[in-house]
Amino acid sequence: MHALLAALTARRDAASPAVAELLAALEQAGPELTEMDVQISSFGGVGSTQLSNHLNAYGITTNLLTDADNLRHCPRPPVYDNTNTASTSGSSGSSHVRRPRHVVYLYGDPLAAVASHYRRGHACHQAQKTCGQPSCLSPATFPPSFEEYVSRGEDLFGLEAHFHNWLTARLEYPLVMLRYERMFEPGVASRLFQLLAGHKLCAPQLQRMTREFVASHRPRRSQVPAEYYRRMYGSLLAEMDRLPPLLIRGAGASAPITEADTQPP
Questions:
Q1: pTM for this predicted structure
Q2: I want to staple 71 with a disulfide (CB 3.0 to 4.6 A). Which of 15, 63, 184, 210 is the partner?
Q3: pLDDT by residue (tens digit) across 64-93?
Q4: Which domains does the chain have, with CATH numbers?
């Protein structure tokens, strides 16, 4: 139901009487029907679709894969107002969804993520979503290839600001910072799904969910030459490497999981 509500409220055209009536009914339905279980945000190219699909397969609701709710790649944590409507400053607008039960920021190797966007043919479009200033980028002047992007050496995707915004922003809700390259490790995946799905699933279901997710891991299709990291994003990657694979940030505090939490069950 939350997906229907988000999709309808994201429409730019005037709502018909029937749509307006449906919206009113959805908004009055209460959080048990319209609350999102998990919001997953990232700068893209780090497995957010795979994680969303896996959660959805077990009945855990997530934000829209189409990004019509402006949450998938927003450049900083949304601020939810008193009506629980999300404001995603710097993206293409506000998202009319209730505050989710959990918020996850998924991040990973920045150059591999950029290479993935180029491989899939939407580099400039993605950069317009993540840079925070979409009007400053144009397909006509955007580097046409991954190699040219690295040679230029300019963070047109705004990945450093994107990551730091999510890492340091003052929060009014807990935030799970999750490293893509390590989320398939059994201990990390087990802890993750306990956090995100424990309110709906029993222990055997969570164990099966974890096993299937770990088994779904495949090597990246986008490979990056080692020397490229000396040209850009090397320091950013090193900063990411210093964080635990699953970090829970609260209002004004960070609480990483312990080594015991990351061991296989």
A1: 0.80
A2: 63
A3: 888 778 899 999 999 876 555 555 555 444
A4: 1-34 (no CATH), 36-255 (3.40.50)
